[in-house]
Amino acid sequence: MSAAPWPPAAPTRRRSRPALAALLAAPLLLGTAAAQTAPLVAQQVLGRAEVLEGITWRAISGPAPVRQGLRTGAGRVWLESNGGGRSGAVLVGPESRLRAYRDEADLQGGQFLLRGPVGTHVLGNHLVLEGGAQARVDLGTNGAPRRVALLAGNARLALAGGVVRLNAGRQVALGSGAVSAFAETDPWYAAQFTGVGRVTVQATRGPVYVGGDTGRQIARIGAPLGTGDRLITGGNAWAEVGYAGGGYLRLQAGGELGVLGTERTVLGHEVTLGLTRGTVLNVVQGGGPGTLLASSAVRGSLFRVGAARLAQTFGDPGVVASAGTARTAATPPSRPPVPAAPAGAALTLQIDPVPRALRDLTLGVSSLPGARVVARVGTRTFPLTPVDGQPGRFRLSGAALSEGPHTVQVRAEGRGQLRTRLLKVTIDRTPPTLSGVRAERTGRVLLLSGSVRDAGAGRVDLTANLGGESFRQSVLLAGGAGTFRLTLPAPGTPVRLTVRDEAGNEAHAVLS
């Protein structure tokens, strides 16, 4: 963030002389009464944030009064507002700024989420939310909409010499004053998470991959995730990631979680994750406060957030509100209906990430509802089936191909348009092999060692089960072969050793 001088709020409506005099006197009040009362308080800070003190910006990491102004970098801030006798909350989004004016926040640029009862100014226009109301304010740049949109409840906005009244599902354009229907498609506040310290893969089940600019590979336990990396879970799979500073996220089946960026703050090295597909559970061991992992909109010992679902929490921890209806995290809301595409919509074709090796060809595809989608391999054609309840989603499950590499052409046809995509897959039904497996006991320690071979992958996952516990290790293969050494406790029970390749093929060995 640059240290540019704080921009004054430009009034957007004509003011009377007394009102104008009061506005001109506001900077003087900021140095007296406002300095003592400080009705705006930053309560929760995620990432970089600064408050204005005189002519100096000061970085904050926790609760702090906001007497003149506040701005954020890649992070976000929960702001408690007690102006005008109303006690509500304002979520200040990334790269956003506001000033303190007449005991209230005057939103100047960026994105904001409001919880009533609260009074704010939006570019000099007074906005009041009733109790229980929720609204988002978008003051973007580069042609982005400048609007106030109601998610729940009722609000009123003084605009262009009049008062605009809004209820849930309506929005007002700040430039023209036009009121229209609002349907949220980008709940920016619901699917990002920030924590302190390096992020690593802590546990996995089923096919889990890490992707980036150089391709993707099987996720291994302990692997760090850097900016641009994506964690991807297949069907019937999950993966847990953890911050070095504390806090864990579990990515459920069919999900994708990416590292959006890192930032050096007063708390340390903060990493922000973004959920682009699927569902995430946040599990804080012990359920107590003080975890360094938090969501901008959903907090508690256990919460569930869907990337494509409107998800908000403003009340008790663990409660998720969807479209204004409260639900517990254990009972997530059903998927909202997907509206039909307009008649002139362009045909689209998106293919879900595909593992480098598969037992059979399985594809997930998004296109326009009603499109005809097929996969072609050589002279064979495999139709993709529409997914019930998910317009525009198509799936191919378990098409049998011969072992080895294949080039797949995916075609979508509809409304006189055609889209195609090519991808390469490898079909692998041959399990890896274990050889030379030895178990050596030394006191209370059991050392397992041996070799593993697999023709279809550069890495395999090794799991040892004994005494009701599991121990995992990823084995890198060079030329299709690799060795392993695994140190375990030595109870008096047999050890079952399992090796699994990227396609899901397994081999087993039992040592007594």
Automatic annotation (TrEMBL):
Keyword Signal attached:
yes
Give the signal peptide, or none.
1-37
Keywords (A to Z) from UniProt: Signal
- Kindly provide the name given to this protein in its UniProt entry: Bacterial Ig-like domain-containing protein
Q: Which organism is it from?
A: Deinococcus aerius
